[in-house]
Amino acid sequence: MAASLIAACALSDAQVKLPEQAWTVPHSANLLPHFAEVNGHEQLFVDGSPFAMLATEIPWWDLRVQSYRQDESVYDSLYPAAVRLGLNTLKVPVKWSMVEPEKDQYDFSYVDHALSQARSNHLHLVLDWFGHYASGAGTIYQNLTGQMFAPMYIVQDETTYPRAVDGNGLAHHDAVSYDSDAVIEREEKAFKAFMLHLKQVDHDHVVVGIQLENEIAVFGSDRHNPKLFRDHSAASNRLFEQGGFTDDLKYSEWSLSSRWIRPLTEIAHATYPIPIFHNFVNGSLEPGQVGGSPGEDVATYLENAPDLSFIAVNAYFCGAWKDTTCPVPSDGKTEEIRAALRRFQVGRNIVAVTETNSGNTLVAPRFAFIALGEFATPIFSPWCLTVSYPELDQPYLSADGKLENGAASFREAVQALSLALPPILTYAGTEKIRVFQAPAIGQSYSAEETVNGITLSMSENRDGQAIVIHPSAKQLLIVGYRTEVSIKNEGMIWPTMQKLQVTKVRWSGSGWVSVGAADYGVDQSNTSLYVELANPQAVLITLP
Length: 544
Description:
24% of the residues lie in helices and 28% in strands. By secondary structure, the chain is of the alpha/beta class. Strand 17 (445-451) and strand 18 (454-472) form a beta hairpin. Helix 5 runs parallel beside helix 7, helix 9 (334-342) packs across helix 10 (363-375) and helix 10 (363-375) packs parallel to helix 11.
Protein backbone atom coordinates (compact mmCIF):
# COMPACT_ATOMS: atom_id res chain seq x y z
CA MET A 1 0.00 0.00 0.00
CA ALA A 2 1.13 3.59 -0.70
CA ALA A 3 2.49 5.73 2.13
CA SER A 4 -0.47 8.10 1.82
CA LEU A 5 -2.83 5.41 3.05
CA ILE A 6 -3.97 5.84 6.61
CA ALA A 7 -4.83 2.52 8.24
CA ALA A 8 -8.30 2.53 9.81
CA CYS A 9 -8.65 1.11 13.28
CA ALA A 10 -9.88 -2.47 13.24
CA LEU A 11 -12.86 -3.27 15.45
CA SER A 12 -12.96 -6.54 17.30
CA ASP A 13 -15.38 -9.20 16.09
CA ALA A 14 -17.68 -8.56 19.04
CA GLN A 15 -17.89 -4.85 18.26
CA VAL A 16 -18.79 -5.18 14.60
CA LYS A 17 -22.48 -4.70 13.90
CA LEU A 18 -23.24 -6.33 10.57
CA PRO A 19 -26.14 -4.85 8.55
CA GLU A 20 -27.97 -8.07 7.79
CA GLN A 21 -31.18 -6.27 6.82
CA ALA A 22 -29.48 -5.04 3.63
CA TRP A 23 -28.96 -8.60 2.38
CA THR A 24 -32.14 -10.26 1.15
CA VAL A 25 -31.24 -13.92 0.75
CA PRO A 26 -34.46 -15.92 0.33
CA HIS A 27 -35.50 -19.04 2.22
CA SER A 28 -37.96 -21.79 1.39
CA ALA A 29 -40.27 -23.74 3.68
CA ASN A 30 -39.78 -26.77 1.42
CA LEU A 31 -36.73 -28.60 2.78
CA LEU A 32 -36.55 -31.09 -0.12
CA PRO A 33 -33.97 -30.17 -2.80
CA HIS A 34 -35.94 -28.17 -5.37
CA PHE A 35 -35.91 -25.11 -7.63
CA ALA A 36 -37.75 -21.82 -7.10
CA GLU A 37 -37.56 -18.48 -8.88
CA VAL A 38 -35.23 -15.86 -7.40
CA ASN A 39 -34.47 -12.52 -9.07
CA GLY A 40 -35.57 -13.80 -12.48
CA HIS A 41 -33.72 -17.12 -12.44
CA GLU A 42 -34.42 -20.61 -11.15
CA GLN A 43 -32.49 -21.21 -7.96
CA LEU A 44 -31.67 -24.52 -6.30
CA PHE A 45 -32.69 -24.74 -2.64
CA VAL A 46 -31.43 -27.41 -0.25
CA ASP A 47 -32.80 -27.55 3.31
CA GLY A 48 -34.56 -24.27 2.61
CA SER A 49 -31.50 -22.23 1.59
CA PRO A 50 -29.95 -21.29 -1.79
CA PHE A 51 -27.35 -23.90 -2.71
CA ALA A 52 -24.96 -24.80 -5.48
CA MET A 53 -23.20 -28.13 -5.82
CA LEU A 54 -19.46 -27.39 -5.80
CA ALA A 55 -18.47 -30.85 -6.85
CA THR A 56 -16.23 -33.26 -8.63
CA GLU A 57 -16.85 -36.81 -9.84
CA ILE A 58 -15.31 -40.04 -8.66
CA PRO A 59 -14.70 -43.09 -10.88
CA TRP A 60 -16.68 -46.28 -11.30
CA TRP A 61 -14.38 -48.70 -13.16
CA ASP A 62 -12.85 -50.26 -10.03
CA LEU A 63 -16.29 -51.56 -9.04
CA ARG A 64 -16.32 -54.91 -10.82
CA VAL A 65 -19.18 -57.13 -11.87
CA GLN A 66 -19.66 -60.05 -9.46
CA SER A 67 -17.36 -58.28 -6.96
CA TYR A 68 -19.42 -55.23 -6.08
CA ARG A 69 -19.65 -56.11 -2.38
CA GLN A 70 -15.90 -56.75 -2.16
CA ASP A 71 -15.13 -53.52 -4.00
CA GLU A 72 -17.63 -51.41 -2.07
CA SER A 73 -15.05 -49.33 -0.20
CA VAL A 74 -12.55 -48.88 -3.03
CA TYR A 75 -13.32 -45.14 -3.36
CA ASP A 76 -13.74 -44.31 0.34
CA SER A 77 -10.57 -42.21 0.46
CA LEU A 78 -12.01 -39.86 -2.18
CA TYR A 79 -14.70 -38.49 0.15
CA PRO A 80 -12.27 -36.81 2.58
CA ALA A 81 -10.17 -35.76 -0.42
CA ALA A 82 -13.18 -33.86 -1.78
CA VAL A 83 -13.50 -32.14 1.61
CA ARG A 84 -9.81 -31.17 1.52
CA LEU A 85 -10.46 -29.66 -1.90
CA GLY A 86 -13.14 -27.48 -0.31
CA LEU A 87 -16.12 -29.07 -2.07
CA ASN A 88 -19.62 -29.53 -0.68
CA THR A 89 -20.78 -32.31 -3.05
CA LEU A 90 -19.45 -35.46 -4.67
CA LYS A 91 -20.78 -37.01 -7.86
CA VAL A 92 -20.97 -40.78 -7.37
CA PRO A 93 -21.83 -43.07 -10.31
CA VAL A 94 -24.32 -45.87 -9.65
CA LYS A 95 -24.48 -48.52 -12.37
CA TRP A 96 -27.71 -50.32 -13.19
CA SER A 97 -25.71 -53.57 -13.03
CA MET A 98 -24.87 -52.79 -9.38
CA VAL A 99 -28.44 -52.34 -8.14
CA GLU A 100 -29.91 -55.25 -10.11
CA PRO A 101 -27.20 -57.93 -10.16
CA GLU A 102 -29.83 -60.57 -11.00
CA LYS A 103 -33.16 -60.06 -12.72
CA ASP A 104 -35.69 -58.63 -10.24
CA GLN A 105 -33.19 -58.92 -7.38
CA TYR A 106 -32.14 -55.51 -6.09
CA ASP A 107 -29.10 -54.64 -4.02
CA PHE A 108 -28.63 -51.07 -2.78
CA SER A 109 -25.64 -51.75 -0.57
CA TYR A 110 -23.34 -49.47 -2.59
CA VAL A 111 -25.90 -46.65 -2.54
CA ASP A 112 -26.21 -46.99 1.24
CA HIS A 113 -22.43 -47.11 1.59
CA ALA A 114 -22.07 -43.90 -0.45
CA LEU A 115 -24.68 -42.20 1.74
CA SER A 116 -22.82 -43.29 4.87
CA GLN A 117 -19.51 -41.99 3.56
CA ALA A 118 -21.08 -38.69 2.56
CA ARG A 119 -22.67 -38.23 5.99
CA SER A 120 -19.38 -39.00 7.74
CA ASN A 121 -17.62 -36.36 5.65
CA HIS A 122 -20.46 -33.80 5.70
CA LEU A 123 -20.88 -33.92 1.94
CA HIS A 124 -23.92 -33.91 -0.30
CA LEU A 125 -24.18 -36.35 -3.21
CA VAL A 126 -25.25 -36.36 -6.82
CA LEU A 127 -25.92 -39.94 -7.84
CA ASP A 128 -25.16 -40.57 -11.52
CA TRP A 129 -27.53 -43.25 -12.79
CA PHE A 130 -25.54 -45.16 -15.41
CA GLY A 131 -28.14 -47.34 -17.09
CA HIS A 132 -26.15 -46.78 -20.22
CA TYR A 133 -22.94 -44.91 -20.86
CA ALA A 134 -22.07 -43.05 -24.03
CA SER A 135 -18.57 -41.64 -23.73
CA GLY A 136 -16.78 -44.55 -25.33
CA ALA A 137 -17.46 -47.49 -27.61
CA GLY A 138 -20.62 -49.22 -26.51
CA THR A 139 -23.41 -47.94 -24.34
CA ILE A 140 -24.29 -50.89 -22.09
CA TYR A 141 -20.76 -52.19 -21.62
CA GLN A 142 -17.17 -51.51 -22.63
CA ASN A 143 -15.79 -54.54 -20.86
CA LEU A 144 -17.29 -57.21 -18.62
CA THR A 145 -15.66 -56.12 -15.36
CA GLY A 146 -15.72 -52.47 -14.23
CA GLN A 147 -17.15 -50.98 -17.42
CA MET A 148 -20.45 -52.85 -17.54
CA PHE A 149 -23.48 -50.67 -16.99
CA ALA A 150 -26.54 -52.77 -17.82
CA PRO A 151 -27.06 -56.03 -15.89
CA MET A 152 -25.60 -59.25 -17.22
CA TYR A 153 -29.03 -60.66 -18.08
CA ILE A 154 -29.53 -57.73 -20.49
CA VAL A 155 -26.03 -58.12 -21.96
CA GLN A 156 -26.37 -61.87 -22.50
CA ASP A 157 -29.88 -61.94 -24.01
CA GLU A 158 -29.84 -60.07 -27.34
CA THR A 159 -33.02 -61.83 -28.44
CA THR A 160 -35.23 -60.41 -25.69
CA TYR A 161 -33.24 -57.17 -25.56
CA PRO A 162 -32.27 -56.37 -29.17
CA ARG A 163 -29.12 -54.49 -30.11
CA ALA A 164 -28.84 -51.23 -32.01
CA VAL A 165 -27.99 -51.57 -35.71
CA ASP A 166 -25.81 -49.03 -37.52
CA GLY A 167 -26.32 -47.55 -40.98
CA ASN A 168 -24.34 -50.39 -42.56
CA GLY A 169 -26.71 -52.98 -41.10
CA LEU A 170 -24.27 -54.16 -38.43
CA ALA A 171 -25.72 -54.95 -34.98
CA HIS A 172 -23.54 -53.70 -32.10
CA HIS A 173 -23.66 -56.16 -29.23
CA ASP A 174 -22.44 -53.48 -26.80
CA ALA A 175 -25.21 -51.01 -27.71
CA VAL A 176 -28.76 -51.98 -26.81
CA SER A 177 -31.71 -50.70 -28.86
CA TYR A 178 -33.71 -48.22 -26.81
CA ASP A 179 -36.48 -48.57 -29.36
CA SER A 180 -37.12 -51.93 -27.73
CA ASP A 181 -39.97 -51.77 -25.23
CA ALA A 182 -38.51 -54.76 -23.38
CA VAL A 183 -35.29 -52.86 -22.59
CA ILE A 184 -37.09 -49.71 -21.50
CA GLU A 185 -39.46 -51.63 -19.24
CA ARG A 186 -36.59 -53.32 -17.43
CA GLU A 187 -34.68 -50.10 -16.81
CA GLU A 188 -37.85 -48.31 -15.70
CA LYS A 189 -38.49 -51.01 -13.10
CA ALA A 190 -34.94 -50.88 -11.74
CA PHE A 191 -34.87 -47.08 -11.70
CA LYS A 192 -38.15 -46.91 -9.81
CA ALA A 193 -36.77 -49.29 -7.18
CA PHE A 194 -33.65 -47.12 -6.91
CA MET A 195 -35.64 -43.89 -6.45
CA LEU A 196 -37.99 -45.52 -3.95
CA HIS A 197 -35.02 -46.72 -1.93
CA LEU A 198 -33.58 -43.19 -1.84
CA LYS A 199 -36.88 -41.82 -0.59
CA GLN A 200 -36.86 -44.38 2.22
CA VAL A 201 -33.27 -43.90 3.41
CA ASP A 202 -32.31 -40.29 2.61
CA HIS A 203 -34.31 -38.44 5.27
CA ASP A 204 -31.57 -35.82 5.77
CA HIS A 205 -31.35 -34.89 2.07
CA VAL A 206 -27.78 -36.00 1.46
CA VAL A 207 -28.65 -36.60 -2.19
CA VAL A 208 -29.39 -33.27 -3.85
CA GLY A 209 -29.78 -34.48 -7.44
CA ILE A 210 -29.79 -37.37 -9.88
CA GLN A 211 -27.79 -37.23 -13.09
CA LEU A 212 -29.73 -39.45 -15.48
CA GLU A 213 -27.38 -41.31 -17.82
CA ASN A 214 -24.36 -39.58 -19.36
CA GLU A 215 -23.89 -37.88 -22.74
CA ILE A 216 -26.91 -39.46 -24.41
CA ALA A 217 -26.17 -41.34 -27.64
CA VAL A 218 -27.16 -44.52 -29.46
CA PHE A 219 -23.78 -46.17 -30.02
CA GLY A 220 -21.35 -44.08 -27.99
CA SER A 221 -18.27 -44.07 -30.20
CA ASP A 222 -17.36 -41.90 -33.20
CA ARG A 223 -19.84 -39.09 -32.69
CA HIS A 224 -19.27 -37.63 -36.14
CA ASN A 225 -19.96 -40.81 -38.14
CA PRO A 226 -23.39 -40.43 -39.86
CA LYS A 227 -23.74 -44.23 -39.91
CA LEU A 228 -24.01 -44.06 -36.10
CA PHE A 229 -26.47 -41.17 -35.87
CA ARG A 230 -29.43 -43.44 -35.24
CA ASP A 231 -30.52 -47.00 -34.59
CA HIS A 232 -31.46 -48.85 -37.82
CA SER A 233 -33.01 -51.89 -36.12
CA ALA A 234 -36.37 -53.14 -37.44
CA ALA A 235 -38.26 -51.50 -34.57
CA SER A 236 -36.44 -48.20 -35.10
CA ASN A 237 -37.01 -48.24 -38.85
CA ARG A 238 -40.75 -48.67 -38.27
CA LEU A 239 -40.85 -45.74 -35.84
CA PHE A 240 -38.74 -43.64 -38.19
CA GLU A 241 -41.17 -44.23 -41.06
CA GLN A 242 -44.32 -43.87 -38.94
CA GLY A 243 -43.08 -40.53 -37.59
CA GLY A 244 -42.35 -39.15 -41.04
CA PHE A 245 -38.70 -38.49 -40.17
CA THR A 246 -36.09 -37.69 -42.80
CA ASP A 247 -33.23 -36.65 -40.50
CA ASP A 248 -31.38 -39.31 -38.47
CA LEU A 249 -30.27 -36.91 -35.73
CA LYS A 250 -33.74 -35.49 -35.22
CA TYR A 251 -35.12 -39.01 -35.01
CA SER A 252 -32.59 -40.01 -32.34
CA GLU A 253 -33.35 -36.87 -30.33
CA TRP A 254 -37.07 -37.62 -30.43
CA SER A 255 -36.75 -41.34 -29.79
CA LEU A 256 -34.32 -41.19 -26.88
CA SER A 257 -36.02 -38.24 -25.17
CA SER A 258 -39.67 -39.23 -25.56
CA ARG A 259 -39.59 -43.04 -25.46
CA TRP A 260 -36.76 -43.61 -22.96
CA ILE A 261 -35.88 -40.55 -20.89
CA ARG A 262 -39.39 -39.19 -20.41
CA PRO A 263 -40.74 -42.29 -18.62
CA LEU A 264 -37.67 -42.41 -16.37
CA THR A 265 -38.10 -38.76 -15.34
CA GLU A 266 -41.81 -39.31 -14.78
CA ILE A 267 -40.98 -42.21 -12.47
CA ALA A 268 -38.52 -40.04 -10.54
CA HIS A 269 -40.97 -37.16 -10.22
CA ALA A 270 -43.77 -39.43 -8.99
CA THR A 271 -41.54 -41.40 -6.59
CA TYR A 272 -39.08 -38.91 -5.10
CA PRO A 273 -39.14 -35.48 -6.80
CA ILE A 274 -35.62 -34.17 -6.25
CA PRO A 275 -33.79 -32.47 -9.16
CA ILE A 276 -33.03 -34.81 -12.05
CA PHE A 277 -30.89 -33.73 -14.96
CA HIS A 278 -28.83 -34.64 -18.00
CA ASN A 279 -25.37 -33.62 -19.12
CA PHE A 280 -24.68 -33.06 -22.82
CA VAL A 281 -21.48 -32.63 -24.79
CA ASN A 282 -20.59 -29.03 -25.59
CA GLY A 283 -20.93 -28.74 -29.34
CA SER A 284 -23.32 -29.37 -32.20
CA LEU A 285 -23.63 -31.92 -34.98
CA GLU A 286 -25.97 -29.83 -37.11
CA PRO A 287 -27.19 -26.22 -37.12
CA GLY A 288 -29.69 -25.40 -34.41
CA GLN A 289 -28.85 -28.44 -32.31
CA VAL A 290 -27.38 -27.94 -28.83
CA GLY A 291 -25.49 -31.05 -27.76
CA GLY A 292 -22.48 -32.71 -29.34
CA SER A 293 -23.50 -36.39 -29.33
CA PRO A 294 -25.95 -38.06 -31.74
CA GLY A 295 -29.30 -37.94 -29.98
CA GLU A 296 -28.62 -34.80 -27.91
CA ASP A 297 -30.58 -31.57 -28.29
CA VAL A 298 -31.50 -29.37 -25.34
CA ALA A 299 -34.76 -27.95 -26.72
CA THR A 300 -36.06 -31.38 -27.78
CA TYR A 301 -35.38 -32.99 -24.39
CA LEU A 302 -36.89 -30.11 -22.41
CA GLU A 303 -40.05 -30.35 -24.51
CA ASN A 304 -40.36 -34.14 -24.55
CA ALA A 305 -39.30 -34.73 -20.92
CA PRO A 306 -40.94 -31.92 -18.92
CA ASP A 307 -39.83 -33.42 -15.59
CA LEU A 308 -36.15 -32.84 -16.44
CA SER A 309 -34.88 -30.09 -14.12
CA PHE A 310 -32.13 -28.95 -16.50
CA ILE A 311 -29.51 -30.09 -18.99
CA ALA A 312 -25.91 -29.32 -18.02
CA VAL A 313 -22.92 -28.87 -20.28
CA ASN A 314 -19.73 -30.91 -20.36
CA ALA A 315 -17.42 -28.14 -21.58
CA TYR A 316 -13.72 -28.78 -22.10
CA PHE A 317 -11.36 -26.07 -23.32
CA CYS A 318 -8.12 -26.56 -25.23
CA GLY A 319 -5.66 -24.30 -27.03
CA ALA A 320 -5.32 -26.77 -29.90
CA TRP A 321 -7.00 -30.17 -30.02
CA LYS A 322 -5.27 -33.20 -31.52
CA ASP A 323 -8.07 -35.72 -31.95
CA THR A 324 -9.32 -36.08 -28.36
CA THR A 325 -6.09 -34.97 -26.65
CA CYS A 326 -4.92 -31.48 -25.80
CA PRO A 327 -1.20 -30.88 -26.41
CA VAL A 328 -1.71 -27.09 -26.16
CA PRO A 329 -3.48 -26.06 -22.92
CA SER A 330 -6.34 -23.59 -22.98
CA ASP A 331 -5.77 -19.98 -21.95
CA GLY A 332 -9.27 -19.96 -20.42
CA LYS A 333 -10.62 -16.91 -22.20
CA THR A 334 -13.54 -15.40 -20.30
CA GLU A 335 -15.59 -14.88 -23.46
CA GLU A 336 -15.04 -18.49 -24.56
CA ILE A 337 -16.29 -19.68 -21.15
CA ARG A 338 -19.32 -17.40 -21.33
CA ALA A 339 -20.12 -18.56 -24.87
CA ALA A 340 -20.24 -22.22 -23.77
CA LEU A 341 -22.76 -21.34 -21.05
CA ARG A 342 -24.84 -19.05 -23.23
CA ARG A 343 -25.30 -21.84 -25.80
CA PHE A 344 -27.19 -23.78 -23.13
CA GLN A 345 -29.52 -20.88 -22.34
CA VAL A 346 -32.30 -22.58 -24.28
CA GLY A 347 -35.94 -22.10 -23.30
CA ARG A 348 -36.52 -23.08 -19.67
CA ASN A 349 -33.08 -24.61 -19.26
CA ILE A 350 -31.01 -23.81 -16.17
CA VAL A 351 -27.36 -23.41 -17.13
CA ALA A 352 -25.10 -25.85 -15.26
CA VAL A 353 -21.65 -27.47 -15.57
CA THR A 354 -21.17 -31.18 -14.89
CA GLU A 355 -17.76 -31.64 -16.51
CA THR A 356 -14.86 -29.34 -17.34
CA ASN A 357 -11.05 -29.20 -17.30
CA SER A 358 -9.44 -30.76 -14.25
CA GLY A 359 -5.75 -30.56 -15.10
CA ASN A 360 -3.01 -28.11 -14.25
CA THR A 361 -4.53 -25.09 -15.99
CA LEU A 362 -6.60 -22.34 -14.35
CA VAL A 363 -9.66 -23.02 -16.51
CA ALA A 364 -11.77 -24.54 -13.71
CA PRO A 365 -11.32 -21.74 -11.12
CA ARG A 366 -12.02 -19.06 -13.73
CA PHE A 367 -14.99 -21.01 -15.09
CA ALA A 368 -16.39 -21.42 -11.55
CA PHE A 369 -16.46 -17.66 -10.89
CA ILE A 370 -18.26 -16.95 -14.18
CA ALA A 371 -20.69 -19.87 -13.79
CA LEU A 372 -21.69 -19.04 -10.21
CA GLY A 373 -21.42 -15.26 -10.33
CA GLU A 374 -23.14 -14.67 -13.66
CA PHE A 375 -25.34 -17.72 -14.21
CA ALA A 376 -26.14 -19.04 -10.69
CA THR A 377 -25.30 -22.55 -11.87
CA PRO A 378 -26.80 -25.23 -9.58
CA ILE A 379 -23.75 -27.44 -10.12
CA PHE A 380 -20.13 -26.84 -11.06
CA SER A 381 -18.04 -29.99 -11.31
CA PRO A 382 -14.63 -30.61 -12.94
CA TRP A 383 -14.08 -34.19 -14.09
CA CYS A 384 -12.61 -36.24 -12.42
CA LEU A 385 -10.93 -36.22 -9.00
CA THR A 386 -8.36 -38.88 -9.94
CA VAL A 387 -8.28 -38.38 -13.73
CA SER A 388 -7.54 -35.17 -15.62
CA TYR A 389 -8.94 -34.16 -18.99
CA PRO A 390 -8.24 -32.81 -21.56
CA GLU A 391 -4.79 -32.29 -20.06
CA LEU A 392 -3.69 -35.86 -19.38
CA ASP A 393 -1.86 -37.18 -16.30
CA GLN A 394 -2.50 -34.08 -14.19
CA PRO A 395 -5.15 -35.22 -11.68
CA TYR A 396 -6.21 -33.19 -8.66
CA LEU A 397 -5.54 -36.22 -6.47
CA SER A 398 -2.37 -38.29 -6.81
CA ALA A 399 -2.17 -42.05 -6.35
CA ASP A 400 -0.77 -41.53 -2.84
CA GLY A 401 -3.69 -39.29 -1.85
CA LYS A 402 -2.06 -35.87 -2.16
CA LEU A 403 -3.76 -32.86 -3.70
CA GLU A 404 -1.58 -31.68 -6.56
CA ASN A 405 -1.45 -30.10 -10.03
CA GLY A 406 -4.41 -27.72 -10.40
CA ALA A 407 -6.01 -28.66 -7.07
CA ALA A 408 -4.61 -25.71 -5.13
CA SER A 409 -5.88 -23.18 -7.67
CA PHE A 410 -9.33 -24.74 -7.82
CA ARG A 411 -9.47 -24.91 -4.03
CA GLU A 412 -8.77 -21.16 -3.86
CA ALA A 413 -11.80 -20.44 -6.02
CA VAL A 414 -14.03 -22.86 -4.10
CA GLN A 415 -12.94 -21.48 -0.72
CA ALA A 416 -13.76 -17.93 -1.77
CA LEU A 417 -17.12 -18.82 -3.31
CA SER A 418 -18.12 -20.92 -0.29
CA LEU A 419 -17.77 -17.94 2.05
CA ALA A 420 -20.72 -16.18 0.41
CA LEU A 421 -22.45 -18.77 -1.76
CA PRO A 422 -26.13 -17.96 -0.94
CA PRO A 423 -25.73 -14.19 -1.55
CA ILE A 424 -23.78 -14.83 -4.77
CA LEU A 425 -26.51 -17.15 -6.06
CA THR A 426 -29.24 -14.71 -5.03
CA TYR A 427 -27.80 -11.76 -6.94
CA ALA A 428 -26.23 -13.69 -9.86
CA GLY A 429 -27.22 -12.34 -13.24
CA THR A 430 -28.55 -9.04 -11.84
CA GLU A 431 -27.14 -5.51 -12.14
CA LYS A 432 -26.07 -5.76 -8.48
CA ILE A 433 -23.23 -8.23 -9.09
CA ARG A 434 -20.17 -8.38 -11.32
CA VAL A 435 -17.35 -10.86 -11.89
CA PHE A 436 -13.86 -9.42 -12.31
CA GLN A 437 -11.11 -11.48 -13.95
CA ALA A 438 -8.46 -10.99 -16.61
CA PRO A 439 -9.61 -11.74 -20.18
CA ALA A 440 -7.37 -14.83 -20.23
CA ILE A 441 -5.01 -16.86 -18.06
CA GLY A 442 -1.70 -15.12 -17.40
CA GLN A 443 -2.89 -11.64 -18.33
CA SER A 444 -2.88 -8.77 -15.84
CA TYR A 445 -6.12 -6.91 -15.25
CA SER A 446 -6.77 -3.34 -14.23
CA ALA A 447 -10.02 -1.52 -14.94
CA GLU A 448 -12.60 0.89 -13.63
CA GLU A 449 -16.08 -0.62 -13.56
CA THR A 450 -19.53 0.29 -12.25
CA VAL A 451 -21.64 -2.11 -10.19
CA ASN A 452 -25.19 -0.98 -9.44
CA GLY A 453 -24.21 2.68 -9.51
CA ILE A 454 -20.94 2.51 -7.60
CA THR A 455 -17.59 2.84 -9.40
CA LEU A 456 -14.65 0.65 -8.43
CA SER A 457 -11.10 0.37 -9.65
CA MET A 458 -10.10 -3.28 -9.76
CA SER A 459 -6.63 -4.69 -10.30
CA GLU A 460 -5.27 -8.20 -9.99
CA ASN A 461 -2.10 -10.06 -10.68
CA ARG A 462 -1.03 -13.70 -10.62
CA ASP A 463 -4.47 -14.70 -11.93
CA GLY A 464 -6.58 -13.41 -9.07
CA GLN A 465 -10.29 -12.76 -9.49
CA ALA A 466 -13.23 -11.32 -7.61
CA ILE A 467 -17.01 -11.08 -7.41
CA VAL A 468 -18.46 -7.75 -6.23
CA ILE A 469 -22.05 -7.43 -4.96
CA HIS A 470 -23.57 -4.00 -4.34
CA PRO A 471 -27.15 -4.56 -3.13
CA SER A 472 -27.81 -1.13 -1.61
CA ALA A 473 -26.27 2.35 -1.39
CA LYS A 474 -23.87 1.77 1.49
CA GLN A 475 -23.39 -2.02 1.28
CA LEU A 476 -20.68 -3.78 -0.70
CA LEU A 477 -19.29 -7.31 -0.67
CA ILE A 478 -16.06 -8.36 -2.35
CA VAL A 479 -15.32 -12.09 -2.70
CA GLY A 480 -12.05 -13.23 -4.22
CA TYR A 481 -8.28 -13.57 -3.94
CA ARG A 482 -5.08 -11.93 -5.24
CA THR A 483 -7.08 -8.78 -5.96
CA GLU A 484 -7.03 -5.10 -4.97
CA VAL A 485 -10.08 -2.85 -5.07
CA SER A 486 -10.36 0.90 -4.64
CA ILE A 487 -13.64 2.74 -4.10
CA LYS A 488 -14.08 6.49 -4.43
CA ASN A 489 -16.41 7.81 -1.71
CA GLU A 490 -16.82 11.32 -0.31
CA GLY A 491 -17.11 9.91 3.20
CA MET A 492 -13.45 8.81 3.21
CA ILE A 493 -12.28 11.77 5.25
CA TRP A 494 -12.11 12.54 8.92
CA PRO A 495 -14.42 12.42 10.87
CA THR A 496 -17.03 10.64 8.66
CA MET A 497 -14.60 7.80 7.90
CA GLN A 498 -15.15 6.63 11.49
CA LYS A 499 -18.47 5.18 10.32
CA LEU A 500 -16.69 2.96 7.79
CA GLN A 501 -16.75 -0.80 8.47
CA VAL A 502 -14.53 -3.23 6.56
CA THR A 503 -14.73 -6.79 7.88
CA LYS A 504 -13.84 -10.26 6.67
CA VAL A 505 -17.01 -12.36 6.83
CA ARG A 506 -18.69 -15.60 5.93
CA TRP A 507 -22.39 -16.29 5.37
CA SER A 508 -23.95 -18.53 7.97
CA GLY A 509 -27.60 -19.51 8.00
CA SER A 510 -29.34 -16.21 7.40
CA GLY A 511 -26.67 -13.59 8.06
CA TRP A 512 -23.05 -12.53 8.11
CA VAL A 513 -20.53 -13.72 10.69
CA SER A 514 -17.34 -11.74 11.22
CA VAL A 515 -14.15 -13.79 10.88
CA GLY A 516 -11.54 -11.07 11.42
CA ALA A 517 -10.10 -7.78 10.30
CA ALA A 518 -9.68 -7.05 6.61
CA ASP A 519 -6.57 -5.55 5.01
CA TYR A 520 -7.61 -2.05 3.96
CA GLY A 521 -6.68 1.60 4.08
CA VAL A 522 -8.08 5.05 3.41
CA ASP A 523 -6.48 7.72 1.23
CA GLN A 524 -8.10 10.93 2.46
CA SER A 525 -6.43 13.08 -0.19
CA ASN A 526 -8.29 11.09 -2.87
CA THR A 527 -11.31 10.23 -0.68
CA SER A 528 -10.79 6.57 -1.54
CA LEU A 529 -10.99 3.21 0.23
CA TYR A 530 -8.48 0.52 -0.72
CA VAL A 531 -9.08 -3.15 0.05
CA GLU A 532 -6.61 -5.95 -0.58
CA LEU A 533 -7.65 -9.61 -0.84
CA ALA A 534 -4.37 -11.53 -0.82
CA ASN A 535 -5.96 -14.93 -0.17
CA PRO A 536 -9.51 -16.34 -0.51
CA GLN A 537 -11.87 -14.19 1.53
CA ALA A 538 -15.12 -12.27 1.58
CA VAL A 539 -14.97 -8.65 2.68
CA LEU A 540 -18.13 -6.83 3.75
CA ILE A 541 -18.01 -3.03 3.51
CA THR A 542 -20.39 -0.54 5.07
CA LEU A 543 -19.66 2.89 3.59
CA PRO A 544 -20.02 6.07 5.68
